[in-house]
Amino acid sequence: MKCFPKSIQSELNQLEQNDALQKVALPNDLIDFASNDYLGFSRSEIITEDRQEYLIKNKFIEEAATGSRFLSGSQKLYQETEDFIADFHQTQTALIFNSGSDATIGFFSVVPQKGDLILYDELCHAAIQDGIQMSNAKACKFNHNDFEDLESLIQTPRPKTQDPTSIYIVTESVFSMDGDCPNLEELVRISDEYHCRLVVDEAHALGVFGSKGEGFVQMLGLQDSIFARVLTFEDALGCQGAAILGSLELRDCLVNFAQRFKYTAGLSPLSVAAVLTGYQHLEKEQQTIAQLRKNIIHFNQEKNMLGLKQLFVHSKSAIQSAIITGNENVTSIAQKLQEKGFDVKAILSPTVPEGQERLRFCLHSYNSPEEISEVLQLLSVFIFSPQI
């Protein structure tokens, strides 16, 4: 076997020296505060049985899509599911992609055009930033949730030939590492005032916000003011795939020009049926969604009572992040929590900026109040009495 490239090996060695070398997580039997399976759909026997019943009833027996959706991969199951998603989210159309990464890269690589300007929150996740880098448009980040900074960038003089409606503002409704939310109503106001197009990633809002888990945008009644929404199914729905919501014209653009859509095999019937079944259960799992919200409230109350509030980024979502500076420090506390039976993961630099290392707690409908209280009590002990 040929030698591995020295430059890459050097970078790996540097990560190891900085306690930042990461490895693929192995399955465990710990109490789950790590997965994004907010509603427990991935482990639901009822949802699995409903999906199988649907496939058998409709005689979908294929194990794979067998091709792109321009060839053989676009069965009627796709149309039924996309129509259901569009109705659920009160939008004209939904277009399914194989993953959140495919959806965001597919969008940004084709929709913003040369001469356009993309203004994105500095904490937008890596797939959004990858897509923006592939765009022909110019791009500039604004300070996290800082709309004065955003407006100053919008007002920066541009060539007179530039169309002012060619500015795209990009944010997440729940930021994946901090768990906080932007003031979407203010972002809509800014977008309207300056004739911008607002793009919102709702990956971590689906299943968490809204009476039926529709997301943060619909909870605020802003769906008609958003140019495009990106949803992923890997989190609250516990299945594979993603969708972009928007107008008929946006769908036509993506179908015809997005290479991440055109030149890849579609999701299997099994995966698409899982998406449809997951959405059907969102409509009737309001008690499960309500329990998740109760757990979020309980988590916030407990951390405040234990004097841990100053460690945490303000969040009313299912993502709660405690900032513990230093890869070694945060890894040590994560390991202690794991030894006590709780699966809490450390997020290390350079995944997050140096000095912003953190424990990322993911809350679920199936976490008990007792589990939440115990894991926070342990965190309090490890923070305030590190010798124990």
Question: What do these coordinates show?
Answer:
- With 388 residues, the chain is of the alpha/beta class.
- It has 2 domains: 232 residues, Type I PLP-dependent aspartate aminotransferase-like (Major domain) (Aspartate Aminotransferase, domain 2, 3-Layer(aba) Sandwich); 100 residues, Aspartate Aminotransferase, domain 1 (Alpha-Beta Complex).
- It contains 14 helices and 12 strands.
- The strands form 3 sheets. It has a 7-stranded mixed sheet, sandwiched between helices. A 3-stranded antiparallel sheet has the order 9-12-11, with helices on one face.
- Strand 3, helix 5 and strand 4 form a beta-alpha-beta unit.
- It is globular and about 60 Å long.
- Keywords: Pyridoxal phosphate, Transferase.
- Belongs to the class-II pyridoxal-phosphate-dependent aminotransferase family. BioF subfamily.
- InterPro entries: Aminotransferase_I/II_large, AON_synthase_class-II, PyrdxlP-dep_Trfase, PyrdxlP-dep_Trfase_major, PyrdxlP-dep_Trfase_small.
Index terms:
three-stranded antiparallel sheet; seven-stranded mixed sheet; 40% helix; 14 helices; Aspartate Aminotransferase, domain 1; Aspartate Aminotransferase, domain 2; alpha/beta; 388 residues; globular; 14% strand
